[in-house]
């Protein structure tokens, strides 16, 4: 909505944003609760105080795969495509210079989006796919979880590279922290 209609959805519809965030956390929890109550999944305890969720049937694994991987991926692709389509629109623009400037900006935006989502898919997908089929305590499970942690650590940097406003705010915050930092002498 912000790109297409130039409206700030966070101030216009705050209850919708709160509801969506609430559903993001509640729906997966309800999914797991239903699966445990219907004996479609079970918790397997490891010998080293770790545990893993074991899904007992292939249809449940496929449902979870759609719920936690395919649906979010498709929604991201659709929203990204609609945003790029809108940004690349030259409808109503007469000046050739403005059209060239928009196309250059659109190409930069497209390259940044492709880079971000490629890194995101490479680091996020293995853990998301493997959690349905691989024991988390096995070597492949540990490797995929490690990739997921790397993705979580890299996200702020990738977003700062894509949107310079984040990088600017972080620099301002870092300067404030450095300016207000006090080093007190420690008495022996």
TrEMBL record:
Highest taxon of the lineage: Eukaryota
Q: Where are the transmembrane segments?
A: 15-37, 66-87, 108-126, 146-168
UniProt source species: Rotaria sordida
Q: Which UniProt keywords apply?
A: Membrane, Transmembrane, Transmembrane helix
Query: Matching Gene3D superfamilies, A to Z?
Result: Rhodopsin 7-helix transmembrane proteins
UniProt KW Transmembrane helix keyword: yes
Report the protein name in the record.
Answer: G-protein coupled receptors family 1 profile domain-containing protein
């Amino acid at each position: 909505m912000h790109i297409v209609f130039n409206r700030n959805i966070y101030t216009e519809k705050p209850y919708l944003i709160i509801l969506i965030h609430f559903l993001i956390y509640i729906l997966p929890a309800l999914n797991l609760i239903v699966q445990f109550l219907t004996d479609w999944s079970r918790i397997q305890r490891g010998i080293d105080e770790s545990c893993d969720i074991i899904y007992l049937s292939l249809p449940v694994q496929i449902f979870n795969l759609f719920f936690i991987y395919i649906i979010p991926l498709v929604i991201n692709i659709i929203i990204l495509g609609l945003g790029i389509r809108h940004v690349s629109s030259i409808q109503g623009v007469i000046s050739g210079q403005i059209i060239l400037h928009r196309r250059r900006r659109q190409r930069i935006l497209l390259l940044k989006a492709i880079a971000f989502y490629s890194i995101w898919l490479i680091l996020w997908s293995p853990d998301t796919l493997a959690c349905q089929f691989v024991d988390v305590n096995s070597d492949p499970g540990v490797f995929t979880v490690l990739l997921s942690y790397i993705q979580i650590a890299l996200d702020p940097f990738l977003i700062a590279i894509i949107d310079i406003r984040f990088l600017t705010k972080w620099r301002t915050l870092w300067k404030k922290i450095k300016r207000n930092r006090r080093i007190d002498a420690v008495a022996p």
